[in-house]
């Protein structure tokens, strides 16, 4: 009580001033309707300004909660996009498998659909990575193709991915033949153009025309015979030599690789065992001696 009395005494002048101002304003505005209207209008404007400022302050402090809610919704939408993309990829792989025509000559081959997750075409030695590995049945020395042609051969595998030596790699040589004449040679990339390669070691009497199709020869345990590889552009060396070279436009577009298939030869071990036997026979003495 003493503190209240002391406060009144200390601020008595201001309190008296506020009292008389209030009385004056009451008398001023109550006796004149116009002034009362102006006062009420100004008071409403001031109140609106105060309410607007208060609302802005409240909204500012609510931004954290609103931002958190937006982030949660964005994460949910992102997860939904990923799920939809995975569904689209599965449908594409299924369609890719369904549309691949399997020739009767490759019935002992199986095919595993995979997706290219990394690829290079501008290096001297190019590789690509697929999203299937040893847990999916992928092993080294399996061939890789797409719907257009040969892509490469598996070199190393992890549990869930595999590294593939691209056809755009001079370390990879592919036994091929001219489809209409069966003359065969070795296809190798010369490092110049990612859409072209060279078919080497063809005999001088080989018959061909530009536009002829180059296919796999089937002389290995990796690829079946007859898989498309490329189309002849023209001769790359003089035909007066004993062997000459053809320049080939590759059918596989290595700049847009997506879905591929890994080729599994179920008779590969048998073929390799026979080949090993032939090598051992070459070291033995001729029959009849």
Keywords:
alpha+beta, single chain, 6-stranded antiparallel beta barrel, Thrombin, subunit H, 289 residues
Per-chain topology:
Blueprint: H1 2-10, H2 12-31, H3 33-99, E1 109-119, E2 127-130, E3 143-145, E4 150-157, E5 162-166, E6 174-178, E7 184-188, E8 196-203, E9 213-216, E10 228-235, E11 243-250, E12 259-265, H4 268-282
Antiparallel strand pairs: 1-2, 1-12, 2-5, 3-4, 3-12, 4-5, 6-7, 6-9, 7-8, 8-11, 9-10, 10-11
Helix pairs in contact: 2-3
How would you characterize the overall build of this protein?
With about 290 residues, this protein is of the alpha+beta class. It has a domain at about 110-265: Thrombin, subunit H (Beta Barrel), CATH 2.40.10.340. It has four helices and twelve strands, in the order αααββββββββββββα. The chain has helices at about 1-10, 10-30, 35-100, 270-280; strands at about 110-120, 125-130, 145, 150-155, 160-165, 175-180, 185-190, 195-205, 215, 230-235, 245-250, 260-265. Strands 1-2-5-4-3-12 form a six-stranded antiparallel barrel. A six-stranded antiparallel beta barrel has the order 6-7-8-11-10-9. The radius of gyration is 41 Å and the shape is rod-shaped. The N and C termini lie far apart (about 135 Å).
């Amino acid at each position: 009580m003493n503190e209240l009395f002391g406060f009144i005494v200390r601020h008595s002048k201001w309190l008296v001033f506020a009292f008389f101002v209030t009385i004056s304003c009451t008398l001023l505005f109550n006796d004149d309707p116009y002034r009362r209207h102006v006062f009420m209008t100004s008071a409403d404007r001031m109140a609106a300004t105060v309410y607007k400022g208060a609302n802005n302050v409240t909204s500012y402090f609510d931004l954290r909660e609103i931002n958190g809610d937006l982030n949660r919704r964005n994460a949910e939408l992102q997860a939904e996009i990923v799920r939809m993309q995975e569904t689209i990829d599965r449908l594409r792989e299924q369609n890719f498998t369904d549309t691949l025509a399997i020739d009767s000559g490759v019935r002992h081959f199986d095919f595993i659909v995979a997706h290219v997750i990394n690829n290079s075409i501008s290096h001297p030695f190019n590789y690509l990575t697929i999203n299937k590995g040893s847990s999916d049945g992928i092993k080294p020395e399996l061939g890789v193709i797409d719907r257009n042609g040969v892509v490469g051969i598996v070199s190393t595998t992890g549990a869930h991915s595999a590294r593939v030596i691209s056809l755009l790699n001079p370390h990879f040589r592919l036994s091929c033949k001219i489809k209409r004449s069966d003359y065969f040679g070795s296809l190798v990339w010369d490092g110049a153009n990612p859409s072209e390669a060279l078919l080497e070691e063809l005999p001088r009497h080989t018959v061909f025309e530009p536009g002829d199709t180059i296919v796999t020869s089937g002389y290995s345990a990796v690829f079946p015979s007859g898989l498309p590889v490329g189309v002849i552009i023209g001769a790359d060396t003089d035909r007066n030599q004993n062997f000459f070279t053809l320049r080939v436009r590759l059918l596989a577009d290595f700049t847009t690789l997506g879905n591929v298939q890994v080729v599994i030869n179920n008779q590969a071990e048998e073929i390799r065992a026979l080949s090993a036997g032939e090598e051992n026979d070459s070291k033995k003495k001729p029959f009849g001696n």
